[in-house]
Amino acid sequence: MTARGSLSPGLCSVTFRQLDVGAIVGLAAAARLAGIEWGGDVHVPPGDLTAARAARRRCADAGLAVASYGSYLFADGASAGLLDPVLATAAELGSDLVRVWCPFGVEPGAPPSERSAVAEVLAGWVEEAASLGISLYLEFHGGTLTATAPSARALLEEVGDERLRCGWQPRYWDVPDADQLDAADELALLEPWLAHVHVYEWEDSATRLPLSAGQAHWPKILEQASGVDPGPTRRFALLEFVAGDDPTALVADAATLTRWLAGRPSGEVAS
């Protein structure tokens, strides 16, 4: 299904690293999701074109889109030789969007020379990916230049290419008081570049809750994100981190997510 606005409901395969590709496709289909972001660490490793073809075929057979390829490619000098296998795998997977990372240790407030070095790497990657019809999006994550929305926006502006976007997830890492923005302000800053939204509800990384526990804030977040121009790629609200890492929790979380994306109040079901 495609939800109202510019967000479709999906799943990050890394939510269930313990399951194989077939099981994840079955879960996503049973939960009536629209697509899957395939992780590059377990399910579809870079350079494993056989795994990429298998995941693509299983998604097609189940009526699921490949939302993106979730790589663990870091924009530093050490990763220069890893880009080609990542892009080849994404192409075989049928993905037009690849998640990449800023390097850990270069954080908001880093010297301009360090920020510019990351921007230069990303700009080169964007050009190479574009030759295959692929766009890139940055992981929004602590310990990197995308640890805060202002820093992420500054980096995106420095690269200056609409084919590079940025994801968003609830910020669970610490940042300076001056950067303590709420979700609405973070999304507003990232709006011109917003890619997927990663969706989960937890007290901390070890205590994951049913998504319905986020009723007070998630519907507003999703409504705001749904109003953003989707740009050249399809955008997803990707479920991640279910309670207890339990596959059976996915169906309930997916029902909650699709209800919110459709703008229905808590407890109201589709006719």
Task: Give an account of the 3D structure.
The protein has 271 residues and is α/β, with parallel strands linked by helices. It has one domain: TIM Barrel (Alpha-Beta Barrel), CATH 3.20.20. Helix content is 35%, strand content 18%. It has helices at 21-30, 49-62, 83-93, 112-130, 149-159, 183-190, 218-226, 249-261; strands spanning 8-12, 35-39, 65-74, 97-101, 135-138, 164-168, 194-199, 202-204, 207-208, 236-239. It has an 8-stranded parallel barrel, surrounded by 6 helices. Helix 4 packs across helix 5 and helix 5 runs parallel beside helix 6. It starts with 7 loop residues before the first strand and ends in a 10-residue tail after the last helix.
Q: Total helix count?
A: 8
CATH architecture: Alpha-Beta Barrel
Query: Taking Cα atoms only, what radius of gyration do you get, to the nearest Å?
Result: 18 Å
Overall average pLDDT: 92
Biggest β-sheet: strands ordered side by side in the sheet: 1-2-3-4-5-6-7-10
CATH homologous superfamily placement: Divalent-metal-dependent TIM barrel enzymes
Strand percentage, roughly?
15-25%
What is the CATH T-level topology?
TIM Barrel
Q: Strand count, sense and closure of the main sheet?
A: 8 strands, parallel, barrel
Question: What is the C-level CATH assignment?
Answer: Alpha Beta
Blueprint of the fold:
Layout: E1 8-12, H1 21-30, E2 35-39, H2 49-62, E3 65-74, H3 83-93, E4 97-101, H4 112-130, E5 135-138, H5 149-159, E6 164-168, H6 183-190, E7 194-199, E8 202-204, E9 207-208, H7 218-226, E10 236-239, H8 249-261
Parallel strand pairs: 1-2, 1-10, 2-3, 3-4, 4-5, 5-6, 6-7, 7-10
Antiparallel strand pairs: 8-9
